[in-house]
Design brief:
By secondary structure, this protein is of the alpha/beta class. The protein has helices at about 40-60, 65-80, 80-90, 95-115, 150-165, 180-190, 205-210, 225-235, 260-270, 290-305, 325-340, 370-375, 390-395, 410-420, 455-460; strands at about 10, 15, 20-25, 30-35, 120-125, 130-135, 140-145, 165-170, 195-200, 215-220, 240-245, 250-255, 285, 340-345, 360-365, 380-385, 405-410, 425-430, 450, 460-470. The longest helix is centred in the N-terminal third of the chain and has 19 residues, at about 95-115.
Length: about 475
């Protein structure tokens, strides 16, 4: 390679070149457009050592000092919104407007988490005097981020770790490493050296992180299958883990819902980021009297949606992000077709370069079909009919996932009664999707371990220490 590489690892506040690299694919073309540095185990060791040194000072920085430093980091990200968004669109595929929103949301996660108070303090008097509870930072947190919303999800984990007093080593997905590497450069300029270290690499890097004795906690967002591997690898050293995993979110639409109002909001919730969002609607249960009308209304929206490269200002939906995911989604479509699914819209890939799948609405399926039972993570939505409220709740809960769910109805009391019976970490009424730094988010069952964001998330990045006789209220 002639001249300095375009992208560097960030270790101890400095850019570091790697001897080898790997291609990054533009999902709108299916072709490589850049190369990312491939970190070695030696790079990881250097990053962990740097993080350990930075932690020694950061843990003793008071909350106001941490807050101001993190606010400066967030402001620096906002100042570079346009180049970051363009790079994110190129590597992830989402429309540029959505990429801009993601950059803003990443900054908001940092500033929002910095504003929270982790709590603790005096509990009561004990035999040895006052008893207090402290939340003690763990040390070095390894952050492993996914490819669907790489900046938001990496930064919400980084923000929680920093706000709780830890230092961080970040690994972005090898499918979308570049914009996160740029964030690493911004962190290196605006935060103490070594506090945030950013390394790109493949599966080996993730395995080295989960097994590294100098990393005290792994924070992971991604698939359930990979989350289980992370948890198993962390068990050898009893590393703490936070796992935000997959979802198969059900939306229950009752027969008293206003379909003209519901259909556009439901479509947006299901097809945001071309369906590549953990909390997106993955299954729609529509009560029998309105099921056909709702399915057709969604199909009309699917047929009208403009799909294409993210730099086209009129595009609403981009490509599936990578070839393996494209292949999986197409296999789910074929399985649905083989099992008698009726395709009201889509059902095929576009005949063009890149990983484009037409927005798809399919009816006539039941449980036992892959598209119903699995998380599709793509622009395909099954519409399932039900009769009674009890049946809807039973079928919505009949899944190994439990991330999110929603109920849509014109009767608030009826909707709330159903919502309370749904086995999911977040339940919406007449809405679906959305998260905020002050609200905990996570799942039941195989959708994860622990909660992210909110005070509950912040505390998951600290150990609890109870101290006797250390001071009064």
């Amino acid at each position: 390679m002639d001249g300095p590489p375009a992208f560097l690892l960030s270790i101890d506040g400095a850019g570091v070149a790697a001897a080898s690299d790997f291609p990054v694919i533009d999902p709108a073309t299916g072709e490589p457009f850049a190369r990312a540095p491939d970190a070695t185990e030696a790079h990881l060791n250097q990053a962990v050592a740097a993080a350990r040194r930075a932690f020694a000072n950061w843990r003793d920085t008071d909350s106001d000092g941490r807050r101001e430093a993190m606010k400066g980091f967030a402001a620096a990200i906002r100042a570079e919104r346009e180049p970051l968004a363009a790079l994110l669109t190129r590597e992830q595929g989402k429309p540029l407007a959505a990429a801009r929103r993601e950059v803003e949301a990443a900054a908001e996660r940092i500033a929002g988490m910095a504003a929270l108070d982790i709590g603790g303090g005096y509990l009561r008097e004990g035999p040895s005097g006052p008893v207090r509870l402290d939340y003690v930072p763990m040390g070095v947190v390894g952050v492993i981020a996914p490819w669907n919303a790489p900046l938001i999800l990496a930064m919400q984990m980084v923000a929680q770790a920093l706000a709780a007093g830890n230092a961080v080593v970040v690994k972005p997905s090898p499918f979308t490493p570049l914009s996160t590497l740029r964030l690493g450069e911004i962190a290196a300029r605006t935060l103490p050296p070594g506090l945030v270290n950013t390394l790109s690499g493949g599966n080996d890097l993730g395995q080295w992180m989960t097994g590294h004795p100098g990393i005290d906690k792994i924070a992971f967002v991604g698939s359930t299958a990979t989350g289980k591997k992370v948890m198993a690898a962390a068990a050898d050293s009893l590393k703490r883990v936070s796992l935000e995993l997959g979802g198969n979110d059900a939306a229950i639409v009752l027969d008293d819902a206003d379909l003209d109002a519901v259909a556009p909001r439901l479509f947006a919730s299901a097809f945001i980021n071309s369906g590549q969002i953990c909390m997106a609607v993955k299954r729609v249960f529509a009560q029998a009297p309105i099921a056909d009308a709702l399915a057709e209304a969604l199909a009309v929206l699917a047929r009208k949606a403009r799909v294409g490269g993210g730099f086209d200002p009129d595009v609403e939906l981009g490509p599936v992000q990578n070839q393996p995911q494209f292949t999986k989604v197409m296999a789910l479509i074929q399985d649905a077709r083989d099992r008698g699914g009726r395709f009201l819209a889509g059902g095929m890939a576009f005949d063009r370069p890149g990983y484009f799948i037409a927005p798809t609405i399919v009816t006539g399926l039941r449980e036992g079909t892959r598209l119903v039972d699995e998380e599709q993570f793509g622009p395909v939505l099954p519409i399932l009919s039900f009769d009674s409220d009890d049946e809807a709740v039973m079928r919505a809960n009949a899944t190994r996932f439990g991330l999110g769910a929603s109920v849509w109805s014109g009767d608030q009391a009826r909707a709330e009664a159903l919502a309370r019976r749904l086995e999911a970490g977040t339940v919406w009424i007449n809405a679906h999707g959305g998260a905020a730094p002050d609200l905990p988010f996570g799942g039941f069952k195989e959708s994860g371990i622990g909660r992210g964001m909110g005070v509950a998330g912040l505390r998951s990045y600290a150990e609890i220490r109870v101290m006797h006789g250390a001071g009064g209220a």
